[in-house]
């Protein structure tokens, strides 16, 4: 493949130079973010939470193990607006690889830039925060940068019709706000049925045993219909579990507020503490927003905290079976230290069903 000089230019005016494929045309706009993970580029690129973003990989060599089959992807396609790398491996080696990262990006029409000083770029983003930017030819000076925070990205990536998975007499409503496929795989480790629904699907009057709220891209305040439906559904007091954006949506449903982090958390080694046990876990993360702890109602508490910046990484109701975590217990990529949270969700559902069953037996006896 032939390359030609190009640039990543930020809305603030700084330019970072590199090389783009000679056949790559046009300008790719996006919110420039960075991920410090050493591996997991396939999972990250197919994570719908990256919609609207130009992803900078800080690890110096990307693509050395190629790209595996779709069964390992987190969605059916790449969602980023563009990719920035220091060095793209010219060869790949893995028994499971079906293609190179170069070929994959080209097949999916994803603009990319290589040979960039990603260390300098990341230091700029850490100082300034995430910045709109564009991958463009050297002779082009983009000016029409979008306000990416004003777009409802969840609306763009959520499924359009309900989908069903699994078997059993326990039904979970899974609200798809841009759901990673490994979340479905993790839930299906239990004997349950899953009804995966669009972000604006009203399930509140349907029978179900639990609610799951997925990850997803963008500012949670745009998900007004998702929040309204969730508020109605919570009145049934059924076990509810949220991940990533699901944490923010659960907090907003409870009356709390969220805010945008300066440069977000995107890596597979974020240390978080379980405040109930004082035990630390390494977690996989990808988010721009967090819950404002000071706005949580009195019947909610912080359950996990990020040990890097002390931000909220989990919330839980003090009495009802509602809880959520800002990180990704399903991993893909990343450590699986917190996979037990899916067991906690399932156990809460079974406990609730047992209570309801006992109540019916008592009522029938009376």
Quick overview of this protein structure:
By secondary structure, the chain is of the alpha/beta class. The chain contains eight helices and 19 strands.
Tell me about this structure.
The protein is α/β, with parallel strands linked by helices and 366 residues long. The chain has two domains: 3-150, 3-Layer(bba) Sandwich (Glucose Oxidase, domain 1), CATH 3.50.30; 153-357, 3-Layer(aba) Sandwich (Rossmann fold), CATH 3.40.50. The protein has eight helices and 19 strands. The strands form three sheets. It has a ten-stranded mixed beta sheet, with helices on one face. A seven-stranded mixed beta sheet has the order 2-1-9-3-4-6-8. A two-stranded parallel sheet has the order 5-7. Helix 6 (224-234) packs across helix 7 (245-254). The longest helix has 26 residues, at 340-365. The termini are far apart. The mean pLDDT is 96.
Please give the structural blueprint.
Blueprint: E1 3-10, E2 15-21, E3 28-35, H1 41-45, E4 53-57, E5 61-62, E6 82-84, E7 87-88, H2 101-107, E8 112-113, H3 118-128, E9 131-137, H4 153-157, E10 163-166, E11 171-176, H5 181-187, E12 193-198, E13 210-213, H6 224-234, E14 240-243, H7 245-254, E15 258-274, E16 279-291, E17 300-306, E18 312-317, E19 322-325, H8 340-365
Tags for this entry?
366 residues, alpha/beta, Glucose Oxidase, domain 1, Rossmann fold, 2 domains, ten-stranded mixed β-sheet, seven-stranded mixed β-sheet, 22% helix
Shape from CA axes?
globular
The residue ranges in which pLDDT falls below 50 over 5 or more consecutive positions are none
Order of helices and strands: EEEHEEEEHEHEHEEHEEHEHEEEEEH
Helix content: 10-25%
Over the alpha carbons, how many angstroms does the gyration radius reach?
A: 21 Å
SS field, number of helical segments: 8
Structural class: alpha/beta
| Order of neighbouring strands in the sheet with most strands | 10-12-11-13-14-19-18-17-15-16
**β content, as a range?**
25-35%
Major β-sheet annotation: 10 strands, mixed
- How far is the N terminus from the C terminus? 78 Å
Which fold name is given in CATH as the topology of the largest domain?
A: Rossmann fold
Architecture (CATH level 2) name of the largest domain? 3-Layer(aba) Sandwich
Mean pLDDT: 96
CATH C-level name of the largest domain: Alpha Beta
CATH homologous superfamily descriptor of the largest domain: Class I glutamine amidotransferase (GATase) domain
């Amino acid at each position: 493949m032939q390359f030609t000089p190009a640039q990543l230019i930020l809305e603030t005016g700084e330019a970072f130079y590199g090389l783009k494929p000679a056949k790559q045309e046009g300008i790719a706009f996006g919110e420039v973010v960075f991920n410090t993970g050493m591996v997991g580029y396939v999972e990250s690129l197919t994570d719908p939470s990256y919609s609207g973003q130009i992803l900078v990989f800080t690890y110096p060599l990307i693509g050395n193990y190629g790209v595996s089959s779709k069964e390992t992807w987190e969605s059916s396609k790449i969602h980023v607006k563009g990719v920035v790398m220091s060095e793209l491996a010219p060869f790949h080696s893995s028994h499971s690889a079906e293609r190179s990262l170069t070929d994959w990006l080209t097949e999916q029409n994803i603009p990319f830039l290589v040979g960039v000083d990603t260390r300098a770029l990341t230091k700029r983003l850490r100082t300034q925060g995430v910045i709109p930017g564009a991958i463009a030819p050297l002779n082009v000076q983009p000016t029409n940068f979008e306000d990416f925070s004003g777009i409802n990205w969840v609306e763009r990536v959520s499924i359009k019709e309900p989908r069903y998975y699994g078997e059993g007499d326990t039904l979970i409503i899974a609200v798809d706000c841009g759901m990673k496929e490994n979340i479905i795989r993790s839930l299906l480790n239990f004997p349950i049925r899953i009804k995966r629904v669009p972000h604006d699907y009203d399930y509140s009057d349907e029978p179900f045993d639990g609610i799951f709220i997925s990850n997803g891209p963008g500012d949670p305040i745009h998900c007004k219909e998702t929040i309204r439906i969730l508020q109605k559904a919570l009145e049934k007091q059924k076990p509810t579990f949220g991940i990533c954006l699901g944490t923010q949506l659960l907090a907003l449903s409870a009356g709390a507020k969220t805010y945008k982090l300066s440069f977000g958390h995107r890596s597979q080694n974020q240390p978080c503490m379980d405040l109930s046990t004082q035990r630390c876990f390494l977690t996989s993360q990808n988010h721009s927003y967090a819950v404002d702890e000071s706005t949580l109602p009195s019947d909610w508490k912080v359950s996990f905290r990020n040990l890097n910046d002390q931000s909220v990484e989990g919330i839980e109701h003090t009495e009802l079976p509602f809880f959520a975590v800002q990180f990704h217990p399903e991993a893909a990529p990343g450590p699986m230290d917190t996979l037990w949270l899916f067991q906690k969700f399932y156990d809460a559902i079974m406990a609730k069903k047992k209570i309801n069953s006992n109540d019916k037996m008592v009522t029938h006896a009376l």
